[in-house]
Amino acid sequence: MPEVVALGETMVLMNPETSGPLRYVHRFTKQIGGAESNFCIGVVRLGHTAGWISRLGDDELGRFVLHSIRGEGVDTSRVSFDSEAPTALMFKERRELGETKVYYYRRYSAASLMTPDDLDEEYIGSAKFLHLSGITPALSVSCHETVLAAMEMARKLGVKISFDPNLRLRLWSAAEARRVLVDLMGRADIVLPGVGEAEVILGTRDPVAIADQILSLGASLVAVKLGAEGAYVADKDGNRFRSPGFTVKRVVDPVGAGDAFAAGFLVGLLRNYPLDECARLANAVGAFAVTVTGDIEGLPSNEELAEFLGESEAIDR
User: Fold this and answer.
1) Does the annotation mark 120 as catalytic?
2) pLDDT band at 250 (very low <50, low <70, confident <90, very high)
3) Poorest-confidence range of 133-137, 238-242, 251-255, 282-286?
4) Buried b / exposed e along 149-176 (16+ C-beta atoms within 10 A)
């Protein structure tokens, strides 16, 4: 059984070959994108085991998603196909000036119809961590119910819950997001917010205040992602520190960096690393993720990460 289990939707990602408004783009690369599967692939690349729970449309795009994730070594035995609903689609739009934008075509998708019946309590209970994001409850009422049910199963069975708010205002209003995400953060053991989304949810960009608020909700460990500046980590035992980020000469695409950070951080916890080393590992994995245009293509292997961190010597020829 996998060490880490995640629940959520993965879409077919249409990635433009050129930058600029989509109306002028004619060629795309077909890839996959989904916060939870990105996370799972990051964990597996670093030598650990992960399982992904979801629904896909019983269509060619669904099979493409399944084969891609399974091909990365992630356990997909708890993924089901839905003959009545399609696999979701997303398009990226990259601009040389301004942020990368994402356009979703996921309403009434197969994954948005997930219910608590899609969960396997024994499967979740066998893991050390259950990883969830705030994207899934934004998809539908039944997805929100599924997330709550998964958390209840994990809590009952002693599985630690990791939660990344992953705020997506294209999916719901800020007010609804605040209400749901604050509640879910309070149900998690480990919370991994980005500083920008925390400002929307909690009303502050101060990492110390963000950590204080989330710890007061009931979480035991918080790692606030600060982008290029690294992360601020705090736990209920009073440990607090900033972990510096790594310099990336050229940021190609920041989408997926937060998922990469989460994968690195939880791998550190799986290895029983000290918190500062967990954060260092997470920052390094996140740095790799922003160097390519896809969500998963830049995620490092153990060997690549060790070379980057100066822990082993690179042999190029």
Assistant:
1) no
2) confident
3) 251-255
4) bbbebbeeeebbbbbbbbbbeebbeeee
The per-residue DSSP string of 225-281 comes to E-GGG-EEEEETTS-EEEE-----S-----TTHHHHHHHHHHHHHHTT--HHHHHHH
Q: State the Cα torsion 281-230-53-50 to the nearest 10°.
A: 0
Quick one: tokens of 207?
């990492």
* Per-residue pLDDT reduced to its tens digit, 36-54: 999 999 999 999 999 999 9
Indicate which residue of 259, 276, 295, 316 is catalytic.
259
**Number of Cβ within a 10 Å radius of residue 239:** 12
Question: pLDDT digits over 89-112, tens only?
Answer: 999 998 877 778 889 999 999 999
Residue 316 has pLDDT above 80, yes or no: no
Cβ proximity of 259 and 35 under 8 Å: yes
Q: Which residues in 58-100 belong to E strands, given as ranges?
A: 79-82, 89-93
User: 75 Cβ partners below 8 Å, 6+ apart?
Assistant: 2, 49, 50, 51, 52
- Single pTM value for the model: 0.94
d(CA 290, CA 4): 24
* Residue 136 vs residues 151, 181, 220, 271: alpha-carbon distances, Å: 13, 11, 22, 28
